[in-house]
Amino acid sequence: MINIIMCGHGQLAIAMKDSIAMIYGDVDNIIAIDFKKDENREILVKKIADMINFDLDTLVIVDLFGGSPYNAAAELAFKSEKIELISGMSLPLCLEIVDNISDMSLSEITDYSVQIGKHCVQKFNKNIIKNEEEEDFI
User: Fold this and answer.
1) 9 belongs to the catalytic site
2) How many Å apart are CA 28 and CA 129, to the nearest integer?
3) What dihedral do alpha carbons 4, 10, 11, 15 form, nearest 10°?
4) Has this prediction a pTM greater than 0.85?
5) Catalytic residue among 4, 5, 7, 9
6) Distance between CA atoms of residues 117 and 123, nearest Å
7) Residue 76 to residue 114: CA distance in whole angstroms
8) pLDDT tens-digit readout, 37-74
9) Is residue 12 within 8 Å of residue 37, measured between CB atoms?
């Protein structure tokens, strides 16, 4: 089993976990950690470390590359082969991870997350919708 730790600025991680639960129900292996404005990186390293079972594989997902949650998690990931870290936390990305995490190894889900994360931002294309609507009336 791979544990998932989500960490972001403010209450983003808690909100993300709640949104995942709204769609999939409660998922046992997800932990959400908030980074509050009066905290620093050292406090955050301790909060994340306290939630990691270092005997199990853990995927840490943070909001911003280079932000305090990223730097705190990177410090822990640097010390353990059982921790992988990705940035760019979004609901579509987290749902994809939850969908696939039981079928993949830690390195596979990490690589897959980076790949699928690039497809999580899509531009609305009026022409495709317009063409589909026109085809529906033919």
Assistant:
1) yes
2) 38
3) -70
4) yes
5) 9
6) 14
7) 20
8) 999 999 999 999 999 999 999 999 999 999 999 999 99
9) no
What's the CA gap between 56 and 58, in Å, rounded? 6
Tens digits of residue pLDDT in 61-114: 999 999 999 999 999 999 999 999 999 999 999 999 999 999 999 999 999 999
Within the chain, strands assigned E span: 2-9, 30-35, 57-62, 83-86
Q: What string of H, E and C letters represents the secondary structure of 99-123?
A: HHHHHCCHHHHHHHHHHHHCCCCCC
CA atoms within a 13 Å half-sphere pointing along the CA-CB vector of 94: 32
Neighbouring-strand partners of residue 94: none
Collapsing DSSP states into helix, strand and coil, what is residue 98?
Answer: helix
